[in-house]
Every structure is written in C-alpha cells, then in structure tokens.
Design a protein that fits this description.
alpha/beta; 4-stranded mixed sheet; 16% strand
Length: 310
C-alpha cells in the first residue's frame, strides 16, 4: 500500500460526549486510490472499490462507493458488486472490521438510482428491491464490526445501508434522512424497522412521516450517529474518525468481538432472560480458544496480547 506524508498532523473531531484529537497518517483518497488525488472512472467495475489495509491496519477492510455521476445511488451493478464484496468478507476470517464509505466528495449514497428505476419494467422493480433489501440484510449480518463513515448525504436507501451497520459516524456537514414518502412510497430496505430500533419509535415516525433530513450534528443528538466530527477541507473527516475507531477494535480478540456482536444483536431482539441465555452460549464459545489463553498469558506477563483468531 502506497503511503505518503500526512497532509495534516491532527484533525479536530467532536462527539456527543467529548472531544477527540487524532493523528491522521494517510488521507482517505490515498488509501483507496493509492495516491493523494481522487480519480473517477466510467467503468462500472469501478462503482465499488474494496481495499484490504495492511501493516498495522491489517484486518481492516474499506468498502468505497464510487459512482460520482449518479451520486453513489444504488444501481443493479452496485447491488451486485456489494453483494459479492459482503460475501467475500463473510468468508474471510482475517477481517477484523469493515468501513463503508464514499469515494465521492459530499455524498455517501443518494438512495435508489431513480434514473435506472424509471427505465425498469414494473415487473423488474420488485425483484430489484428484494435484492437490495437482501444486500442490506447481509451487511447487517456480517459477523465483524461494521462502521458507516458518512461524509455527505445519506438518503433513502443510502441511510438504510448505514442503519444496517453497527456504528455510524458522520461529518458535521452530512445530511441524513428517509425521504421516501416524498415519492409516495415508504422505506423498503429496512428503514421502518431499523430506524425505530436506533432512535426510538416516536422519533422514527416523525422523521419518516415528514421525510425530514437532519445534519450530522443533529443525527448525533438523536442517537442516529455515535459521533459527529467537524468536516475538514478534504471532506473525509468521518472516514478518518471511522479509521481511528477501527484501529481501536483491531487489537482486540477477533473471536471475542464476533461473539460479542452476535450476543448483542440477538439479545436485543428478545426478553432479558433469553438474552442472558444467548450471552452465556456465546461466552461458552470463547472458553476453549487459544486467544483466551493468550489473553491470560499477556495479562500475567504485562504485555500486549497477540490474538490469531484461534
């Protein structure tokens, strides 16, 4: 991976609860493109770029949406490429975390590609929506932590994609909303179910009924995002904060992280008694692992543990 000098030493980020100052080693554009400047292509194979970071960042996968002319809208090709990427990630035990982001300044994902949709026969619309819904469901079911880095507008299906991630980080200039009622339809890829689970039923109804769009700061206040960071000149502040978080996750026990995610996801859908039973079952999965023994040894020897996911 090409590494160039940092374009700035520090960036200032504001979360809901405290201030963050983090060192930015390499720019977003250079990580995804291999150099400092963003570049785009009309080749549909470039609609999505998947980068497996290396060195100390090995285990972090960055999935970058790259449809600048279509505002990263969700097309048949993008659904196909993202589905393949999610399937590959699911099968790769070396993956520790995933960042979903945009390579296009000022936009995360504008939702469905309405130009493409308008050319579809009515009989094609249902199957396409089903595939998009299945993609977002599979994204939500990935066994590793997923972070949506929202540096621009995330509307409709774009926000539904972000809602399927475990954690959302926004820039202060981001715009987020489920705006489908403006088109006479409703969110169809999980928005009516995931948004209430994230921010509560009443607020979710208000946002969906009014097709309201909120900025990154408001999204953080509502609980729609975990952190809202001040946007920088390069337009990738949320990505950099997401990368910082992925680096915090990276050294932890990978099997433990997967089991913790499974316990939380399944436990929040049931009553407390059943949830505690789920936690107990997940805990039992980490007991026989080599990672658990390594964690104990490292604690005893006062050193950093080296987990292998075994």
């Amino acid at each position: 991976m090409a590494v160039q000098a940092a374009r700035r030493a520090f960036f200032k980020a504001t979360s809901c609860s405290k201030q963050y100052v983090a060192f930015a080693k390499v720019s977003f554009a250079s990580r995804l493109n291999g150099h400092g400047a963003r570049h785009y292509s009309a080749d549909p194979n470039d609609d999505l770029r998947v980068r497996h970071l290396d060195g100390e960042d090995a285990g972090i996968v960055v999935v970058g949406i790259n449809r600048p002319k279509a505002k990263n809208s969700i097309s048949k090709n993008l659904v196909k490429m993202m589905s393949e990427a999610v399937e590959d990630i699911k099968k790769d035990n070396r993956v520790r975390s995933v960042i979903i982001c945009s390579l296009v300044p000022g936009i995360f994902c504008a939702g469905a590609d309405l130009k493409e949709r308008s050319k579809m026969h009515q009989s094609e619309v249902g199957p396409f929506v089903s595939k998009a819904r299945a993609l977002i469901t599979e994204l939500g079911n990935l066994p590793v932590p997923t972070i949506a880095a929202i540096d621009g507008a995330a509307l409709g299906g774009g926000l539904e994609m972000a809602l399927a991630c475990d954690i959302r980080i926004t820039s202060s200039t981001a715009k987020m909303g489920l705006v489908e009622t403006k088109l006479g339809i409703i969110p169809g890829a999980g928005g009516t179910q995931r948004l209430p689970r994230v921010i509560g039923v009443s607020l979710a109804k208000e946002l969906i009924f009014a097709a309201r769009v909120v900025d990154g700061t408001e999204a953080c206040r509502l609980g729609l995002a975990s952190h809202s960071v001040e946007q920088n000149k390069s337009g990738d502040a949320a990505y950099l904060r997401a990368l910082e978080l992925a680096r915090e996750i990276n050294p932890q026990g990978p099997i433990a992280i997967r089991m913790a995610k499974l316990a939380i996801n399944q436990g929040t859908e049931v009553d407390l008694s059943t949830g505690l039973a789920i936690e107990e079952a997940c805990y039992a999965q980490v007991i026989p692992t080599k990672d658990r023994l390594e964690g104990l040894s490292a604690f005893k020897e006062k050193r950093r543990p080296y987990f292998k996911g075994e």
